[in-house]
Amino acid sequence: MASTTPLNVLVFSKTTGYRHDSIPAGIRMFHKLANDAEFFNVTASEDASLFTSSSLTQYHVVVLLQNIGDEIFTPPELDALKIWVQNGGGIVAIHGAAAAMQGNECYTNLIGASFDMHPDPEAGTILPEKASQEHQIMRCCGGREGWKDEWYNFHTHPRENKNLQILLRGDPETFSGGKHGADHPLAYTYV
């Protein structure tokens, strides 16, 4: 039987560096999804003091929405997030979240990879990873041509992290500036 208790989701959008204009739209999107789906509740905040052992227990998922900057979390806040994840909490890191906390190994391990750079936005093709097509996240996702984006490059190739399952990758023959050769991961999950 499915649970009738809604999931509590914290959408965290603090930045200390560049700030994407799309953050408010992202927050609205999560509120709309929660309202339409009726199986999760959203709290949106930029208050990192919520990242304590006691505060995080009220959430099932933390969405790190475009958190660019090196001082997003203090060491105790990051430790609380790490422990919360080890105890079953889930993280969804979106776009600029990979550019946060550069050089912080704990943060990089939590989100899977660290942003290096991206070329100017241009249209390209997103390919589903064949080995991941049965993953539940992929049920609503397929390939897409003409997707205009900033094709992220990472400091280390995400496939080098054996704890990650690649879900989507960019076709580097359809965009320029990729640094990962023929294999350009874009979306992944922990296994």
UniProtKB/TrEMBL annotation:
Please list the residue ranges annotated as the ThuA-like domain.
Answer: 8-189
**Which Pfam families is this protein grouped with?**
ThuA
Q: Which domain of life is it from?
A: Eukaryota
> By its UniProt entry, which InterPro entries does this protein fall under?
Class_I_gatase-like, ThuA-like
Q: Protein name, please?
A: ThuA-like domain-containing protein
UniProt organism field: Alternaria alternata
Upper taxonomic classification of the species? Eukaryota, Fungi, Dikarya, Ascomycota, Pezizomycotina
